[in-house]
Every structure is written in structure tokens, then in C-alpha cells.
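Hi team,

Below is the intake form for Short-chain dehydrogenase/reductase SDR from Zalerion maritima. Please confirm the fields before the structure is written into the shared record.

FORM ID: S-0412
PROTEIN: Short-chain dehydrogenase/reductase SDR
ORGANISM: Zalerion maritima
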Amino acid sequence: MAPTDRLQQVREHLVGGAPSNKDPTRVDGHVILITGGAQGIGKAAADLLARQGAKIAINDVDAAKAKAAADELQAAGCDAFFLAGDLLDEAFPERLVNAVVARFGRINCLINNAGFCVDSAVHKMTDAKFDIIMKIHNYTPFRMIRALSSHWMDPANLDMPKSIINISSTSGLHGAMGQINYSTAKAGIIGMTKTIAAEWGRYNVRCNAVAYGWIDTRITRPPDGSETVALAGQEIVTGIPLSAKKWRDVSDIPLQRPGTTSDAAGVLLFLASPLASYVTGTCVECTGGRYL
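The structure came back. Fields below:
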């Protein structure tokens, strides 16, 4: 494709071939697959992207919540699909991608959002706790991306908009006490993001990450037993205890508050939309200014 043709394609992508007042935040007809999309940031992103015209594919390990999220979108007139399943099953990512392609005919954007924390001080961290966090935050995004390769490298799909958004954290950028496993994994996802951006740019794929700070979700609230992770035959309660007073202090956040899931979803819309058509290989920080 000649450079002038490519520039024209970008212009058409930005305005949809319509007059220049076309809303560039619209993602009309884009098929967006969100892992962990039934609650928290994932659900907020699904709701926002659907309102902006996307067709939404939701994955979550909780089948009831995944179905409820998809039903809610369908009731609002949006095109939504769900497939529940455990992403820690190494064969599941490929089944998930194939199911979404079978349902919608394509995938335009993958948001690797699924994840959880199992915290412990370094000297108390077990191999099992370390390993499961690496699997959900590194192996799973890698397998999801790899599963897209044949679909996105198909010459017939070369020119369609394609993007990946990986979820990182300020723990990955700055480290965090009690999170040696999570911090290591979230630092690793940034390296993965940059590598995919470098390798797959030739296939018209953008790949970016978002490093979130304190976003008010179930995973960042004090443990109450409602969220657990099965680990080595045990149910591990997730959440950040109230004793983490320094982390919960908003005095070092210029905006003086934790973020909402709506705040978090807005960044994902930007990266998925034509507004970010020349943004790739970067990590956007959504922190309220913490760590300036």
C-alpha cells in the first residue's frame, strides 16, 4: 500500500468516510473482546464502548455475571455476546477467540483486563502465589494475543482497525510493598506491550497498556470474603486490607480521590478509538496524578 493510500485510509478511519464532524470517539461496528468483562473496570468498559457503537464480547470466569452483563447490554439495544471460562486453562484463549470470530466474523480490539491479586510480603510469598499471578497477568495475555495471530495476519484483514490494550498498574511502574508477584507481572506486561507493538505494526496492529493507580473496585476494597481465588485447594480472599493506610491516603494524589471505573473506562475508549490511531507501544498512566 502506497503511503498516500495509507494516509487516506487513516483519514477515512477517523471520519468513517463521513463529514469531518463525525465523532472520533465512536467505534461503530468494532468488535471488542474484553476479558474479565463482567465486573469492575471490564464491565464499565463494556458499557461505555457499547454506547459508542461497539459490538461487545465478554469473557469472565463467573458465568452468571458474564451472562447478566451481556443481557444488560442486549436489553439496551447493543450487540453483545458472552463466553464464560477460566483463562488459566491454557487451551481456553484460543477457544475464546475462535468463538468470538464465529459469532461476529472478526475481532478489532482485545482488552486484556482479567486479573486478581494474591498479596504477601516477599519472605512469606509462596511459589504457588507467585506462579498464579504470573499466569493470569502474563501468560494469559500472551496466549490471548497469540490466539489472534492467524486471524489478524490474514491478508484479508490487514487493513481493518486492530488494537490490543493490556492492563498494567502503578505497582508495575514503581513497585508496591506486599506485591512482589503482582508488581513483577505488571512490569512484565509493559515489555510485552512494546514487543507486540514492534512486531505487529506491519499488520496494522496497535498495542498499548494502561497503568492504573487506585481505582475503586472490588479488588482494591478491603477483603470481605466476596471475592476469592482457588489456589492449591484453598480459597484465597482478595482485596487490599485497611491496614495499608499509606496506599489509601489520597494526600499524594493531586486529584484527591481514588478513580472510578468510569474514569478507568474512558482511557480504554480513547485507546480503542480512532483518536488513538497513531498511538502504539506506550503505557498511559491513569492515576489521578499519584507518583508525579
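SUMMARY LINE: The domain at 27-221+256-286 is CATH 3.40.50.720 (Rossmann fold).

Thanks, M.
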